[in-house]
Write a structure and sequence with these properties.
Structural class: alpha/beta
Oligomer: single chain
CATH class of the largest domain: Alpha Beta
CATH architecture of the largest domain: 3-Layer(aba) Sandwich
């Protein structure tokens, strides 16, 4: 049976929705929703353009008479499915759902919205950054894409979201964007101010800053913060008194050549031999730094590897890289990076000394530059990279220990916002929505159009996972 949101509250709708369930992947519980598919022109500026399909879902409000403006989560990546992102984090938005629908749209190129999937993730994510490998993987990706990647950019995606809003008859949207999703949210608010009621951006990407040159540098700062925090923690310092030197020694060992490790496949338990070198170490550390729960493992993993036991760190590497590869649509990721970031990098201003001194090194940035040398530039509005100027209420969230979008980025993005509130979580990582009191803070902000009293204080008390001193966990 088809259900339509054209019922009394929303007026005439052109997008029909049917009962469905969404989830974060195999083995995860399903969430009741109403789902549909909306046809959109590949090139919205061309009336004769072929169409692509957008996946849309609505998780209905608990209130039988909901407010007319839903919450719209927008996933990061770039390249992650918003439906999958929400299903894995839905508890963070349940307070909002008391009175508002949750509107989910897989951005074009991701999830079930004409995904631009390709095999480049295997070599890139595992740290194989040679120019030859990168060019080969990029060209293979382009040859196998189902659609022209030039039309899978932020500037086109915001027109899709506005079309969905109009089709479902919502009066305006409350936007929540995380990581790359903060760019989408800011640009939607710029392009459609009358359709934007509130904006929450979490792990902020300022429009004026191209991502790329500072990734390795910010990640180095993040690992240094971990070592400093360990040194100031009695249990961690007692257990890992030389962790900074141990990490340097581990890097030196793997820079000299990879080690062969026998590791059980996490699904089949079949033993396999893998090569674990400096590139794999960098990829593992970088991805583990995103979340305080995995940060809590880092001193223990580094200590074990520095003393010859590489299996725990290599196992974590396999898990996080596999999860990231499954989560991202790499063709869409490349379409964004090669249109909206790399062309605007001032290569003469890149801090090559800091890059060389980082544990990631310059190879990742060089790989991005190589990839984009053959990737076609896509559609981009002229003002995409200008700071957002608006009087719409905006809440900016940052993690003090975020390894890719530090709090300073939120300060940059707030420059043109006349009604802005900034919150920073101590020792928190990339994305604050599920942390401590933040679900209540987010719901209160959307309801009152302002940050409620005491919100900053409640974040000060948010839990941060203590360091593991052995594989049983932290000290009791």
């Amino acid at each position: 049976m088809f259900l339509s949101l054209s019922a009394a509250a929303f007026g005439e709708a052109t997008l029909e929705l049917a009962d469905c369930r969404i989830n974060a992947g195999p083995g995860y519980p399903g969430i009741e929703a109403r789902c549909g598919t909306m046809a959109r022109p590949l090139d919205p500026s061309d009336p004769e353009s072929p169409t692509i399909d957008l996946k849309v879902a609505v998780v209905p409000a608990l209130n039988l008479e909901p407010e007319p403006d839903p919450l719209v989560p927008i996933a990061g990546g770039p390249g992650q499915s918003t439906l999958v992102f929400y299903a894995g984090l839905y508890a963070a938005f349940e307070r909002v759902r008391r009175d508002r629908d949750i509107l989910l749209v897989d951005q074009r190129g991701t999830g079930e919205s004409t995904p631009l999937a390709c095999a480049i993730d295997e070599s890139t994510l595992e740290g194989e950054y040679s120019a030859e490998q990168t060019l080969g993987a990029t060209r293979e990706c382009l040859e196998n894409l189902p659609q022209d990647p030039r039309f899978f950019t932020t500037s086109v995606a915001v027109t899709d979201l506005e079309a969905v809003r109009e089709a479902l008859g919502y009066s305006a949207l409350n936007l929540y964007g995380v990581s790359y999703g903060t760019r989408v949210a800011q640009h939607f608010a710029r392009r459609y101010p009358g359709s934007t009621r509130t904006v929450i951006i979490d792990g902020v990407v300022p429009p004026q800053l191209p991502l790329g040159p500072d990734i390795a540098i910010e990640s180095q700062r993040a690992i240094e913060r971990v070592f400093d925090r360990c040194a100031n923690d009695n249990d961690c310092q007692a257990r890992f008194p030389t962790i900074r030197d141990d990490f340097a020694a581990l890097r030196a060992t793997l820079n000299a050549g990879p080690v062969s490790i026998t590791l059980a496949d996490p699904v089949t338990a079949t033993p396999e031999i893998i090569e674990f070198g400096s590139d794999q170490l960098a990829a593992a550390i970088r991805l583990l730094l995103y979340d305080p729960r995995t940060v809590a493992l880092l001193p223990l993993l580094v200590d074990a590897a520095a003393n010859g036991n590489y299996v725990p760190l290599a196992a974590q590497f396999q898990m996080v890289v596999t999860a990231l590869g499954d989560a991202l649509s790499m063709g869409m990721h490349n379409a964004i990076m090669c249109t909206e970031d790399v062309p605007f990098i001032d290569w003469d201003a890149v801090d090559h000394e800091a890059l060389a001194g980082s544990y990631i090194g310059p190879l990742q940035l060089e790989a991005i530059r190589t990839m984009c040398s053959v990737w076609p530039a896509g559609v981009a509005d002229d003002d995409l990279r200008e700071p957002l100027v608006t009087d719409t209420p905006v809440l900016l969230l940052s993690g003090e220990a975020d390894p890719i979008t530090p709090p300073a980025y939120a300060d940059m993005a707030a420059a043109g916002l006349s009604r802005a509130w900034l919150l920073t979580g101590k020792n928190q990582g990339h994305g604050l929505a599920p942390v401590g009191c933040m679900p209540r803070v987010i719901a209160g902000f959307i309801t009152s159009l302002a940050l409620e009293d005491g919100a900053a204080d409640c974040l000060e008390d948010a839990f941060v996972m203590p360091f593991f001193v052995d594989f049983s966990g932290p000290m009791p």
